[in-house]
Amino acid sequence: VKQAWETILALGAGTGLVLILRWYWWRINAWSEISSI
């Protein structure tokens, strides 16, 4: 059970990190597009 929880937490942290990075990436791209106009 402990191993399963650690795996779930690791996967959750991984997907959360990806979502955060994608969100930041979208904002950086949006700002660069706006500033280039």
UniProtKB/TrEMBL annotation:
The chain crosses the membrane at residues 7-26. Keywords: Membrane, Transmembrane, Transmembrane helix. This is Uncharacterized protein. It comes from marine sediment metagenome.
